[in-house]
Design brief:
Elements lengths: L7 H26 L18 H12 L12 H21 L1 H6 L1 E5 L3 E6 L9 E6 L22 E2 L2 E3 L7 H16 L8 E6 L10 H10 L4 E12 L10 E8 L1 E10 L3 E2 L8 H14 L8 H10 L5 H7 L2 H13 L2 H5 L4 E9 L5 E2 L2 E10 L5 H12 L4 E10 L10 H13 L4 E7 L12 E11 L2 H6 L6 E3 H19 L1
Parallel strand pairs: 3-6, 3-7, 7-16, 8-15
Antiparallel strand pairs: 1-2, 2-6, 4-5, 5-17, 7-8, 9-13, 9-14, 10-12, 11-13
Helix pairs in contact: 1-9, 2-5, 2-15, 5-15, 13-15
Length: 500
């Protein structure tokens, strides 16, 4: 029998093995304990019945009005058509929702946007703000024939409403107005004031619509518990390991920067090129930026989303997401592999346009590259510009932000009454869905209301299937009649719960 002491190496390996085993045990235990918690949505409010086809007809009539955002107000004929379409839409909404327009105070703001006030019975109760937008994006020229029904037909066929704006965002406007019309018919009186703000130029930044509405409210001293705008939706089969339908409620949105890189060079004849020229320097800049993207980071709305989904996922995914404290680097690598999830964890910088050269045989003396940056909350426009300058490492290239650039929004609380109201409404209308916060990658009008609303939540109560996601701003935009009816039920529930 050999009683010789074990070598130090064996003892070191044993302690390492025990440590790793303990770590794995802790991680598994955290996954086991992180199960779904019950959520008491409270009693469902007593609401009037929704007539799905009546709501569909109202949305269809709104879709038929071509309220397309003009590319520029300097184009007089285009802008005149926009004004005429908006005024026609105002008249149509007034005709379709007579109780709303007899009961609520309506005013036009910024020439074409609409602002409604429904006074509450308790002046001390914080009001809420529901928003949407009246304008739509144009149909790409040459694609009109690709639509199953003409893009502004408002056709209703096979239980579906077809046309531009059926999803983005006449659905939200009509859904809110239909909800209030039904509540008024039932004799509902809100305890707190309900305000509706519908901008006319969200698709071009909201500078003439939501900005003007927000300024009007601010100047009057009106402040809101929260604003509810478009943004997230209900999705299914979009997240590996999550079998339940999930309601993604945006608690923050990324910032935006149109970054322009400009280089001036000598130019000259293309038969005698230098080692690099203006275009080559910009090509090098693109390569460096794509080879060295801004760092990934799981925090804010994205971390809240992962933590919110974890209890409802398959056990392996639940265990991984229950241990972000140690597995964040691994999760970041997985998320970085797909464009949608990569955008949720970092500021993205994408080259979108380049302008250079005057002839095939002439070296460009001037070249300009446009980058589109979507900025993660916690970072800034100035930080992005500094990062670009550092990575391209070419002092001769000017880097600046042009046109409208804005920093990311603040992250709204999930413990505030606004988020809980949305969560309760989802539970009543979509009982199988789980509600989680998330980060909105695009821009919404809600950012303009930051001065007048304590919190901002971004959620359009519709089911977005995989095919639907390509239809927003794309071909064959549509919404199922029953999905519209559920959206009306959702908005009724929010108002009833908030103002009872």
């Amino acid at each position: 029998m050999n009683d010789a002491p074990r070598p130090r190496r064996w003892r070191w390996r044993r302690w390492v093995g025990l440590g790793l085993g303990g770590l794995v045990g802790v991680m598994v235990l955290r996954g086991l304990l992180n199960g779904p918690e019950s959520f008491d949505a409270g009693p469902a409010p007593s609401l009037p019945e929704v007539d799905p086809m009546a709501a569909a007809e109202r949305l269809a009539r709104a879709v038929r009005i071509e309220s397309v955002t003009p590319s520029s107000s300097d184009d007089a004929p285009q802008y005149a058509a926009h004004v005429a379409a908006m005024k026609a839409l105002h008249q149509q909404l007034e005709a379709d929702f007579p109780l709303v327009h007899r009961t609520l105070a309506r005013e036009t703001v910024g020439e074409l946007s609409l602002l409604y006030h429904w006074p509450g019975t308790d002046p001390s109760a914080e009001p809420i703000l529901l928003t949407g937008h009246l304008d739509v994006v144009p149909v790409e020229p040459g694609t009109e024939g690709d639509w199953t029904h003409p893009p502004f037909s408002g056709a209703i066929e096979d239980g579906v409403i077809w046309g531009r704006g059926a999803l983005d965002d006449k659905l939200g406007v009509v859904g809110i107005l239909q909800a209030i019309e039904l509540l008024l018919a039932q004799g509902f009186m809100p305890r707190r004031t309900i305000v509706l703000g519908f901008g006319h130029d969200e698709e071009r930044g909201g500078l003439g619509g939501a900005v003007a509405i927000a300024a009007t409210l601010r100047d009057r001293g009106e402040r809101f518990a929260f604003v509810l705008d478009e943004g997230g939706s209900l999705v299914r089969d979009a997240i590996p390991g999550l079998e339940r339908e999930v309601a993604l409620v945006g608690v923050a949105e990324k910032g935006y920067a149109q970054v322009v890189l400009t280089v001036h060079d000598e130019g000259g004849h293309a038969s005698m090129p230098p080692p690099t020229g203006a275009i080559g320097r910009l090509a090098t800049a693109i390569t460096r930026l794509q080879d060295e993207p801004m760092p990934a980071r799981i925090d804010g709305g994205t971390r809240m989303m992962l933590e919110g989904m974890a209890p409802h996922m398959s056990f392996p995914m639940r265990t991984a997401l229950s241990n972000l404290w140690i597995l964040s680097p691994v999760i970041e690598q997985v998320m970085a592999a797909e464009p949608p999830s990569n955008a949720a964890i970092r500021t993205t910088i994408a080259p979108t346009m380049i302008d250079a050269g005057i002839a095939p045989n002439v070296l460009a003396a001037n070249a300009e590259l446009t980058l589109n940056a979507r900025i993660l909350p916690g970072q800034t426009i100035d930080g992005v510009l500094d990062y670009v300058r550092e990575v391209i490492d070419d002092p001769g290239i000017e880097v600046r932000c042009i046109d409208e650039c804005w920093n990311p929004s603040a992250v709204s609380s999930t413990d505030d009454e606004g988020f809980l109201l949305v969560k309760r409404a989802v539970a009543h209308v979509y009982p199988e869905a789980v509600t989680v916060p998330f980060l909105v990658g695009g821009a919404t009008d809600s950012r303009h209301y930051a001065e007048v609303a304590r919190q901002a939540y971004r959620f359009l109560p519709i089911r977005l299937r995989a095919a639907d996601r390509t239809r927003i701003h794309g071909t064959d935009e549509q919404i199922a009649v029953e999905d519209l009816a559920n959206a009306v039920r959702f908005y009724m529930t929010v108002v009833a719960l908030a103002a009872a």
